[in-house]
Design a protein that fits this description.
Length: 181
C-alpha cells in the first residue's frame, strides 16, 4: 500500500526499491568536528596575498576535511604570523582602494592598501582578503573570527601554546598543523 503526500505518491516501505533514509546517513562524531590550529608564517611565504588568503579560507571553511558540508561550520583555527611582511604583486599596495559607506549621503570613505598597512597593520589587510573569499552567509563572521592575525612571531606563544600539544606538517609546505588538546 502506498501513501499520498500532496499529488506525489510515495512507495510503501515493503517495496524492494524503497530505501530508508536513515540507512544512508553516516554517524558523525565529535572527533570529526574537532578543530585543529594551523600556523602560517606570512613573512616567509613567497606566495602573494590572494593565494595565501584562498588557502586560509579553505581551512576556515573546513574544505580540507572529508566531512565538509556547506551548511555546517566544521572549519579550523588559523594563526597567521608576520603579517607586516605581506607580499603583493604589481602596484597593488599603492593603487588598491578599500571603500566603506554608512548609508548616509556623502559618507563614502576610501583608503589605500598602503595607508591601511600603516594604520591597522597587515593583519587587517589579510582579514579583508580572506573575508572576500569566504561565502557570504550566516557562517562568515564565525569563520572569520577563527582567523588570528599576528604582526610578529613572538606573540604566537600567548595565542596558541596553551592549546597545542604537537606540531605536524600539512600538505601545504607553508602551513603547519597544530593538534589541540
Amino acid at each position: 500500500m502506498s501513501q499520498t503526500v500532496g499529488k506525489v505518491r510515495l512507495p510503501s516501505p515493503s517495496c524492494n526499491n524503497y530505501i530508508l533514509k536513515s540507512n544512508l546517513q553516516y554517524p558523525q562524531t565529535k572527533l570529526a568536528y574537532s578543530r585543529t590550529w594551523h600556523h602560517l608564517d606570512v613573512g616567509t611565504d613567497p606566495r602573494p596575498l590572494g593565494r595565501i588568503a584562498s588557502s586560509i579560507a579553505i581551512f576556515l571553511m573546513g574544505k580540507n576535511k572529508p566531512i565538509w558540508d556547506p551548511s555546517t561550520d566544521c572549519g579550523d583555527y588559523v594563526v597567521a604570523t608576520g603579517c607586516h611582511d605581506l607580499h603583493t604583486t604589481g602596484k597593488k599596495r599603492f593603487q588598491k582602494k578599500y571603500y566603506r559607506h554608512n548609508t548616509r549621503p556623502g559618507s563614502l570613505k576610501e583608503i589605500t592598501m598602503d595607508r591601511m598597512f600603516a594604520k591597522w597593520g597587515g593583519g587587517e589587510v589579510l582579514r579583508k582578503a580572506v573575508s572576500g573569499m569566504l561565502p557570504k552567509n550566516r557562517l562568515r563572521d564565525k569563520r572569520l573570527a577563527r582567523l588570528k592575525g599576528v604582526l610578529g612571531s613572538t606573540e604566537v606563544r600567548r595565542v596558541v601554546v596553551a592549546n597545542v600539544i604537537g606540531i605536524q606538517l600539512s600538505r601545504d609546505p607553508h602551513i603547519r598543523t597544530m593538534r589541540t588538546l
